[in-house]
What does this fold into?
Amino acid sequence: MTSLTLLTAFLAGALQADEPAPQAPPVKDRIRFSAFADVALGMDWGAKADPKDAALFDQFGFTSFPLNSYGRGFGVVGTDFVLTANITENLVYQGEVNLQVARGESSDMEIDFERFYLDYRVDEYLNAQLGYFFTPIGYHNRFLYSRAWLMQSVQIPDLFEEEFNFVPTHTVGLNLHGRVPILGQNFKYVVGVGNGRGMTPVGNIFARDRMGHEITALLEWEVPGIEDFVVGISGWTDVIHTRKVVGYGTSVDIDTAERVRLRETGLDAYLTYYGKTFNLLFEFVWGCQTDLVGNLNSDRYIMHGFTGEVSFNLAQNTIHPYVRYDYTRLPADQEGPFFGLRQSGDTLTKYYIPEFHGVMLGVNYDATANVRVKLEYAHHFDGPRSANSVVLQVAYGF
Amino acid sequence: MKIIRIAVLMLAASAVCAASAQNNRKKLVVIVNAANPIESLRPAQIRELFLKRHTTWRTELADVPDRKGFEEGEQVRPVDLGAGQEERRLFLEKVLEMSSASLERHWVKVQYQNATDPPTQAESADRAIRLVSSLKGGLGFVFEESLTEEARKKVKIVLSVGSD
It folds into this structure.
């Protein structure tokens, strides 16, 4: 009887014993997929905002993109696939591939590599990111990118459009990032070094064959006492090695053309607030390319732009009316020596790149947790786009 | 016969009212591991931690003098309950102040933006308590009545929220 009591007590004790700390599941169970896509139906009417710009675009534009974003008919961009894996407790891999429709009036599909990097998480103060990632500049480029489902409005601002690369959107390199207290305030920081710009604005993406010069830095202040209110400033500097190409439509041979070297410096200031009743998102970018050789018409080429959006949260945060204003101002003298260059084999050609100046008014509705439907009216003050357009977009992410 | 029917209906109605009142008296509590030196948290702090805007206990420990070996860099380990559970509905409404759909959007968004994974999901309140008691940086929520005497030795209540 005593033995039975002891056995019962032992079994009861064993059953009540502390549960062992949960073990990390195998890697295959720590891999998560997500995807983002959208379909748009557009309509435009009225005259072109600026007929001279429209004529320039017809003659020297690279493709019909980005005009078709606000164009007529149905349009798809593609589907973006994201894989995230917690390899170990501190090591995370993230890869992102965009299976997208080729730009312009084409049925071709292309694979666009967006990110692949390892993130080593030491602690909240210090983490390291190594690989190919969104350049840590500003807010849009890091957090919204061109994922329509994440955005209130329909289109990524031209400032952060990777087909233009006014701001270097992608980098191959190393970032250190974290969150630190300074003078009793919380700041997030990122400092990075990377390969930087290639010979053309879109050429940086696969630049991995030379030690680059790009240095980036970002500091973001979490405004105390107000949730989700941050103010940030970031900057970058790089040296661009390219060729002198004068005049829209002109092509040069890379091996024989005159060499150009530019020091690029940029600043990005932003403010974001996501509140219960309304949200704010303002971002300003300034960039300067300085001639280091002395063989250009001007010493400095300045670019600047702004995007500002105010949106409201109605009906338990499912309906969001919004208004957005954007502009980009590119360097004088045919957008300067760098923007608009495209490479094909050994040839470098100069294309016309339009500026953007417009206001967008719309409303979006979260039909489910994963589907956002948007209706947007856009008015363009100048540039080659039609003065008026309407877009209906269904964006989803999961 | 009619009188009996009315009496049965009244009894049923009063039983429903009593059950509803009892449900309304249930108190939601936010719990952390017993080793955590923090004694109380405000809903705004819990939002920051649960949504993984803060990934370690550092900020919350700033004013806690006796850490008892609890590392300030200890990772926050939120534990969520399955959709549809009454505790979760209350937690979303009273503490996170967001809808279930908004929370789902949040996790898809931060996974894309920062490679941040969503919280561990517990299938029951008992499992949530066990997880919080075994994870040093654990943070969870249950009805107070789910906490047995034994469980109260392993977790600590840092916020109580009435359900009405």
